[in-house]
Structure formats: structure tokens, C-alpha cells
Design brief:
Blueprint lengths: L17 H33 L10 E6 H4 L8 H4 L6 E5 L8 E5 L7 E5 L2 E2 L20 E8 L13 E7 L7 E9 L3 E9 L7 E12 L8 E14 L2 E15 L7 H6 L8 E3 L5 E3 L4 E18 L2 E23 L14 E24 L2 E23 L9 E24 L2 E16 L7 E17 L4 E12 L3 H5 L6 E13 L3 E13 L2 E7 L5 E5 L2 E16 L2 E21 L2 E9 L6 E12 L2 E10 L2 E2 L9 E2 L2 E12 L7 E9 L7 E11 L8 E10 L4 E9 L1
Parallel strand pairs: 4-7
Antiparallel strand pairs: 1-6, 2-3, 4-5, 6-7, 8-9, 8-38, 9-10, 10-11, 11-12, 12-15, 13-14, 15-16, 16-17, 17-18, 18-19, 19-20, 20-21, 21-22, 22-23, 23-24, 24-27, 25-26, 27-28, 28-29, 28-30, 30-31, 31-34, 32-33, 34-35, 35-38, 36-37
Length: about 725
């Protein structure tokens, strides 16, 4: 393939008299002081995330994303959908249109294995290890930048990264007072409204900014509605070498359940059908429970203190607290007291409505010290966090309550998880153009639970996670890097419910080449991830739609990732990426038709071998951006036995993004119009599903037959979002 580089040179000529030159020097001096102060403020703010982020000399495969890069598409869809076009990423949406419950996988690893931090604070739910973006609707509007590290990456806080880590930095202080009103409408009766403000930097060094958002959508899938609200409030105080930052943010989501999917026959006949809430009334008519909903609130508080200590040292400390509480409601026909034990009729089945509650608290602190060395950097950090979760279920209605009372709890259990880690990262120049990176982390995890499904759990895990890397700068534009990392990870609550899980161990080898020039940035990365006791998705779901996992002994992920950013012309930008990979269970055994059968090396579930994405952007002038985005995902298996029944066919999706903005002379600083047309070619595709097996020894007594089944989550055809923002 032949690449033609187009370059252009620009010259700025200035002339003036001596008085003008003198004035220019004085102005330049003032601007220089202002720039230096601004750079110092930005540097202090970056301390909040710098201890966890990778740089080009660390031998890690990563992508940096500024919020401005997805601004034209930020019209209410969840953050995973906005990151859909990054290398090795696959996303999905239960409701089919990117609003509501969404998920992300990286290198075939599911969302429970993608470590997420917000300003260095863990965001993954400590117990399930999942990330529920629906709890933070429109959070992309409060983000400054994101770094996605693929593989083990650098040491981070919270659950270990087994597929990737996503490091999010929230909005930085705005030096000027401002306000922004955003609204968008779209397909499926989608409406998004938000208001943002900033006081700007006040004379006392304080500033305050915030956001309120409201999103409603009916969803592509029947009744898969979303009623979402969120808030974000941030205060900053900066004086000299000290910066204090306080944040309050959270959300409330009410979503109609769409986690059950549909079978293959229904997919062909009625792909938007939603079986959730279905029951038959006394007259024999099909009905749907109108409150088959998930209703959850989550609030976060963070306090950060950053200090420049002198001598090249910077410190960061943060305290955090998260409160989550809510339930999901279900209509359950034909139930008896056998599963409830609260006095319902024992022998007479009754329809009932139940709620299953979660009330949790998560709190702790993080800290780091960063030392700038003559030829490198030293970072020492750590964290200690505690999670307390109360689980309980209650029956709120039944056709025949028996001796039970409304609100009687039919189960109640509690769990506690502690998570502490310390790490040291040392980057230094070993020789001319050769830089080394050493990252050592010790992590201690304790988990206690007493649920009927989990049994009594009281486990403690001690993990040592070393990472080593080398980077060789061949010249100003070319560099080679390699790294070796070991990581460990504990089971989650669902794993305990499935049996007696073992902790996982991963060895990750990365080898790459980077080319960095003003017009072209290119990264080519080879990875080999070898697992012991990897907890892979089985394809099956539990009774609340959560994916189930099991230990599979030895397994690996091997692949090649290529991504580039090419400014072909001042008006044209091209960002392609490609991932070719192989994901295998080694010597996998499966009990089929009652006989334990060796299947050899099988493909790991939900791990496509081919993923490609690209953005082609045309900017005819300073006010207009037109983007064409394409995502292609290859065939994947939804189980680990290479069954044809578990195949999820490959798919492609193309989106069109248009943004036009201008700066009126009065009232508004900026007006922006945005149009996003998703799936412009109306491809009827499925991005996610499930696969299950069970043994049938009833149909033919004495003979065991393994039955296979699959379900699918269809995604929307062509749909649009149209937005407008007014900046004051």
C-alpha cells in the first residue's frame, strides 16, 4: 500500500514601527506569564490522573481521547457508544439504540474485566465488577479526557485490568464564566436536555461549574424505555502550588427491562419483541407488566487535594464516597411459597410482584507522590477502599397473599469487600534513546458474603503484580517498545453463585512500534495474553440477565492491533484501526450427552477474531465538520464449545456525523447544530446474545441428550439524533 503524504508550509510576516515592537514585547511578556500560570494550573489538575496513565515510553498499548473528539456525536448516548470506534472495542445496547443499559468489551474481555476509574477513583461495582453507565447518564458531557489502555496496562486502583483499563478525567476548571444549553431529539421519541455553567476563575482562586441533564427514550426494543436524570457539580480552589477539587455527581435511572433477549425464530419474525413482563391474565389474554422496571439511584462525592511540594515532587490525595440504592421489579406468575418462605399458599400457585433491592456504600481514599527526575519519573501510590452491600427481596403484591404481608422480605443478605493496593512506578533513561519502566504493585482483597446463592464466603487474596517495559527511540519519529506484565484478579459475586471459583492469573506480553509525526501517528502492537484459571463467559445468563462465567484452566489471547491518525490534508482527517486476533481455551473439556468430551482448543466466547473501525472527517471550513464512521466486527461464538448454534454472525455499522457551529457577534459565544445518523445503511444486525445448554434425560428415559439454545439482542436500523447547543 502506497501512502502519499501531503504537506504544506505556512509563513507569518509582521511589520511595525519601533513603538509597536516595544508594545508587542511587553504584551508578549504578559502573555508569557499568563501562559506559564495556565500551564502550572493544568499540570496540577493533571496530577489527579497522571499517576495511573500511560505515556509513550511505558511499553503499553493505549488510546487517548479528548472530549472534543466525540463532541459532535455526544447527543445522549452512553459513554461506551461514544468510544465504539476505538481499537479492539465492541459495544452493545440492551434497548438497541445506545441509551439505557450499554456494555463494552475490549480484546474479547467483558465489561467486568475492564477497570474504570474517574479521577483515579474506582468506578466498577466492587462486588459484581461491572460498570453500569446507565447510572451516570450524559456523563460524557462532564469529561475532559479519557485514556483506554489495552491489556494489563499500568497499575491502577480497584479491580485488576484483565482486558483493558479506562481512565477518565472530568472537566477541568474553566478560566472564564460560561453557560451552555443543549437539546437534542431523535428516533424512538428520544429527548435530551442539559444545562451547564461555570463561574470562571474568581479573584479568590475559586470556581464552580455544574451540569443538569434529563434523557428520555422509548428505545428500539418494545417497551425498552429509559427515563434518566443526572447532575454534576464541581468546585475548584487554586492558590499557588495548592489545588483543591470537590465533586458531587450522580444519576437516577428508570429503565424497562430488556435483558432477556429473544430466540432465533422471534428474531426473524419480530425483532423488536420484548418478553420482559409478559403474563397471561385471568381471561387468557397476553399482558405485560407496566412496571417491569429497573429503578436505581447512585450518588458520588469526591474530594481531591493536589500539592506541589518542591524539589520536583507533587502529591495527590483523594477521599471518596458512593451511595447506591434501588430495585428492579418483576411480575412472576404461578409462584408458590417454596421459594419465598413468607406464608404464601404452599400448594396453590399464585401470581405475584416482587422487588429485588440493592443498597450499597463504597468509600475510601487514594494517594500518590510523583517525583520528576533528571532522566525519568518516580510514582508511589496506593488506595484503600471498602464496599458494603445489602441485598434483599420483597413481595409487594400477590393474587393470594396467604398469611404473608405486603413488603415481606423473602431473602436478606449482606456483603463486605475491602480492596487495598500500593504501587511504585519508576521510569528512567538507561542509555541514550533507551528508556525502562518498572511498575510493582501489591494488592490485598477481602470478600465476605452470606447470601443463599453465594453461601458463606470469607476469602482473602494477596496479589503481586509486576510490570516491566523497555522503549527504544530509533529517531525523532520512530520508537519500539516491549513490556511484560503479570496480573491477578479475584472472582465476583456471580462467580461464587456458580460454584467454587478460583482467582485468575494473567501474563501479558506486548511488542509494538510507534511512528509519531505532525501529520501521521501510527501504532502497531502485538500482544500475547496467557491466562491460568481465566473466568470466561459461558454464554449463559442468570435470572437477572447477568452473564455467567467459569474457570477454564489454561487459555490465551493473541493478536495484532494497528491504529493510525493521518491528517491527510488540512481539511481531511482519517483515523483507521484494525485488530486481528485469536482467543483459545486450551484442551477444553465439555460434558456432552452425559459424557465428558475433549474438544481440543476451542474459541473463547464473545471474542471476535476481526475488529476494524475508522473515522473519515472532512472539515471544509472552520465551522463545519462532517464525519463518516464505520465499525466492522467479525463472527464470534457465544459459548466455548464451537457450536454452530452459538455463532453470532459478523456485522458492520456506518454512522454519519455533521456539526456546524458559528460565533454570533451578540448574545451567544457559540451556536452549534449537530446531526447524527446511526446505521445509515439500515443493517439489521445483532451485537450481543447468549448461549446455554442443559441435559435432557426426560424425553428419552435412560438417555442423556444435551440441548442447546441461544438468544439475541437486536440493534436498531437507521436512526437519528438532532441537537443544538447555545453557549453564552
Amino acid at each position: 500500500m502506497k501512502i502519499v503524504f501531503t504537506t504544506c508550509a505556512m509563513c507569518l510576516l509582521s511589520m511595525g514601527v519601533m513603538a509597536q515592537e516595544s508594545q508587542s514585547r511587553e504584551t508578549a511578556k504578559q502573555e508569557s506569564v499568563k501562559d506559564t500560570t495556565a500551564q502550572k494550573e493544568i499540570a496540577l489538575q493533571e496530577v489527579f490522573v497522571s499517576a495511573l496513565r500511560a505515556t509513550k515510553v511505558m511499553g503499553v498499548s493505549y488510546s487517548n481521547v479528548k472530549a472534543t473528539e466525540y463532541e459532535a456525536r455526544n447527543l445522549g448516548q452512553d459513554l461506551p457508544i461514544l468510544l465504539n470506534y476505538l481499537p479492539g472495542v465492541v459495544t452493545t445496547s440492551d434497548a438497541g439504540a445506545g441509551i439505557g443499559y450499554t456494555g463494552i468489551r475490549v480484546r474479547g474481555s467483558d465489561a467486568t474485566r475492564v477497570n474504570v476509574t474517574i479521577n483515579g477513583i474506582p468506578y466498577n461495582d466492587p462486588e459484581s465488577q461491572g460498570t453500569f453507565w446507565v447510572n451516570l447518564p450524559d456523563f460524557g458531557s462532564s469529561v475532559e479526557s479519557i485514556q483506554l489502555q489495552r491489556g494489563v496496562g499500568t497499575s491502577t486502583n480497584g479491580a485488576g485490568a484483565f482486558g483493558a483499563s479506562l481512565n477518565i478525567e472530568t472537566k477541568r476548571a474553566n478560566p472564564e464564566a460560561s453557560a451552555l444549553i443543549k437539546s437534542s431529539v431523535g428516533s424512538f421519541n428520544t429527548l435530551n436536555n442539559s444545562v451547564q455553567f461555570s463561574t470562571g476563575k474568581l479573584n479568590n482562586g475559586f470556581d464552580l461549574s455544574g451540569r443538569l441533564s434529563r434523557i428520555v427514550s422509548d428505545g428500539y426494543i418494545d417497551r425498552a424505555s429509559s427515563r434518566l436524570s443526572s447532575y454534576f457539580l464541581e468546585g475548584n480552589y487554586q492558590r499557588g502550588s495548592t489545588q483543591l477539587k470537590g465533586l458531587l455527581f450522580g444519576g437516577h435511572e428508570i429503565t424497562y427491562q430488556a435483558w432477556n433477549g429473544i430466540d432465533g425464530a422471534t428474531l426473524e419474525q419480530d425483532r423488536t419483541f420484548n418478553p420482559s413482563g409478559l403474563y397471561i391474565d385471568a381471561q387468557g389474554n397476553t399482558q405485560f407488566h407496566d412496571k417491569e422496571e429497573d429503578n436505581y439511584k447512585q450518588d458520588h462525592a469526591q474530594f481531591h487535594w493536589s500539592e506541589e511540594l518542591g524539589g520536583g515532587w507533587n502529591s495527590q490525595m483523594a477521599l471518596h464516597f458512593t451511595r447506591g440504592r434501588g430495585y428492579f421489579e418483576q411480575y412472576k406468575p404461578g409462584e408458590t411459597d417454596a421459594d419465598y418462605g413468607i406464608g404464601l399458599p404452599a400448594n396453590e400457585p399464585t401470581d405475584l410482584i416482587r422487588r429485588r433491592w440493592l443498597d450499597n456504600r463504597f468509600y475510601g481514599f487514594t494517594s500518590s507522590l510523583v517525583k520528576t527526575l533528571a532522566k525519568g519519573q518516580l510514582i508511589i501510590g496506593g488506595a484503600w477502599n471498602t464496599y458494603e452491600g445489602a441485598h434483599f427481596g420483597e413481595v409487594i403484591w400477590a393474587q393470594n397473599m396467604g398469611t404473608a404481608y405486603k413488603g415481606d422480605r423473602y431473602y436478606e443478605d449482606n456483603s463486605i469487600k475491602t480492596d487495598g493496593n500500593i504501587y511504585a512506578k519508576w521510569q528512567t533513561e538507561l542509555a541514550a534513546k533507551l528508556t525502562s519502566f518498572v511498575d510493582l504493585q501489591y494488592r490485598r482483597v477481602g470478600y465476605e458474603a452470606n447470601g443463599a446463592e453465594t453461601g458463606l464466603v470469607d476469602d482473602t487474596f494477596n496479589f503481586f503484580n509486576p510490570k516491566l517495559g523497555l522503549t527504544l527511540a530509533l529517531d525523532k519519529t520512530n520508537s519500539l517498545y516491549t513490556s511484560y506484565a503479570i496480573a491477578h484478579r479475584e472472582p465476583n459475586r456471580n462467580d461464587y453463585e456458580g460454584g467454587n471459583p478460583e482467582p485468575e492469573r494473567l501474563q501479558d506480553i506486548e511488542l509494538g512500534w510507534r511512528y509519531l509525526s505532525p501529520s501521521l501517528q501510527l501504532n502497531t502492537n502485538l500482544f500475547y495474553m496467557r491466562y491460568n484459571n481465566q473466568l470466561v463467559l459461558t454464554g449463559a445468563l442468570n435470572d437477572v440477565g447477568a452473564p455467567l462465567r467459569e474457570n477454564v484452566g489454561d487459555s490465551y489471547r493473541l493478536g495484532l492491533e494497528i491504529d493510525a491518525r493521518w491528517q491527510m490534508h488540512r481539511k481531511w482527517l482519517w483515523q483507521p484501526n484494525l485488530s486481528l486476533s485469536d482467543h483459545r481455551n486450551i484442551d477444553f473439556y465439555f460434558k456432552k450427552d452425559g459424557v465428558l468430551t475433549p474438544l481440543g482448543n476451542t474459541q473463547i466466547a464473545f471474542s471476535p477474531r476481526f475488529i476494524a473501525g475508522q473515522l473519515l472527517q472532512y472539515s471544509p471550513n472552520a465551522n463545519t465538520n462532517i464525519g463518516l464512521l464505520h465499525k466492522q466486527v467479525g463472527k464470534q461464538y457465544m459459548g466455548n464449545i464451537d457450536s454452530k448454534a452459538s455463532v453470532l454472525e459478523g456485522y458492520g455499522q456506518t454512522d454519519l456525523s455533521v456539526q456546524y457551529q458559528w460565533q454570533p457577534s451578540h448574545t451567544f459565544k457559540n451556536i452549534s447544530l449537530q446531526l447524527l445518523v446511526n446505521n445509515i445503511f439500515n443493517k439489521l444486525y445483532v451485537s450481543n446474545g447468549y448461549f446455554y445448554t442443559y441435559d435432557d434425560d426426560f424425553s428419552n428415559p435412560g438417555v442423556v441428550t444435551t440441548i442447546e439454545g441461544a438468544g439475541y439482542y437486536p440493534q436498531a436500523g437507521t436512526n437519528f439524533l438532532l441537537g443544538m447547543s447555545l453557549a453564552f
